[in-house]
Write a structure and sequence with these properties.
Number of domains: 1
CATH superfamily: Umud Fragment, subunit A
Number of helices: 6
Distance between the termini: 57 Å
Helix content: 25-40%
Strand content: 15-25%
Structural class: alpha+beta
């Protein structure tokens, strides 16, 4: 009886271990599986209410997003949740490190994509190109510095402007700087481009109002090597002719169907 009891105990222990390992292995890819599930659902059933196509016309988010990347934007992610839909739909709060798509505050007819660096209440400063968030040095593996020289305003922010700023940026510097740091006010967000040396972002035009935020990029469904002027006028005869002649050569196949992910900042 003792041998049988010990054998059964070992079997139960082995079974529990196997179940535990199975659970861990199933939990690890769950995030990626969830992302692909949402992507497939939106691709199959999405309308302009849920999904919006967007093309990257400039290099401000290089090398995370490059000129000619065609994105599908998930407009559902940051939509305000209702009393019932909050339990049924995958709404989420905007987080530090998210890549967001929004209406440009200076001209809402234009759509921009940047990385959210600061949420309401955050304190932000840049010293010699290094970002500090709420007093802590931030590791930014997505950031690209493509110039060797230092700019007194761009790379040491906030400071005395050495270029002409838009009025909302001047208001930000006048009213939202405390002890050498920008403090993000309620209902606003501070964004930067990953190509930190060449990005028109919150340093130059101020905060992004919450109501301007459209959603987040979900997937690169096509990437085509074309100049900004062609992408800005995608229906031009020149651009159409270029696609017809060079579709297979200029399509960046390795970027096709790449998921676009943020990077959590603490």
């Amino acid at each position: 009886m003792a041998d049988r009891s010990g054998l059964e105990t070992r079997k139960r222990s082995a079974g529990a271990t196997a179940v535990s390992q199975a659970r861990r292995s199933s939990e690890q890819p769950r995030g990626a599986i969830a992302e692909w599930t949402v992507t497939i659902v939106l691709l199959l059933f999405g309308t302009t209410t849920l999904v919006q196509a967007f093309v990257i016309p400039t290099g401000s988010m290089e090398d995370t997003l490059v000129i000619g990347d065609h994105l599908l934007v998930d407009k559902l992610a940051y939509a305000p949740a209702g009393p019932l839909s909050r339990h049924l739909l995958p709404y989420q709060e905007i987080r530090r490190g998210d890549i967001i798509v929004f209406r440009y505050p200076i001209d809402i007819r234009q759509t921009f994509v940047k990385r959210c660096i600061g949420i309401p209440g955050d304190r932000i400063r840049i010293e010699n190109k290094q970002l500090y968030l709420n007093g802590k040095r931030v590791h930014e593996p997505y950031k690209y510095l493509k110039t060797d020289y230092f700019d007194s305003y761009r790379d040491n922010f906030p400071s005395e402007p050495n270029v002409r700023l838009y009025e909302p940026a001047l208001e930000m510097l006048r009213n939202h700087v405390v002890n050498g740091e920008v403090v993000v006010p309620p209902g606003k967000y501070f964004v930067l481009g990953d190509n930190r040396d060449s990005s028109l972002d919150s340093r130059y035009w101020g905060f992004v109002p919450r109501e301007n935020i459209i959603g987040k990029p979900l997937i690169i469904y096509w990437s085509y090597d074309a100049p900004t002027e062609n992408l800005a006028n995608s229906f031009s005869l020149e651009h159409i002719a270029d696609i017809v002649q060079n579709f297979f050569v200029k399509t960046r196949w390795r970027r096709t169907f790449m998921l676009v992910r943020g990077y959590r900042l603490e």
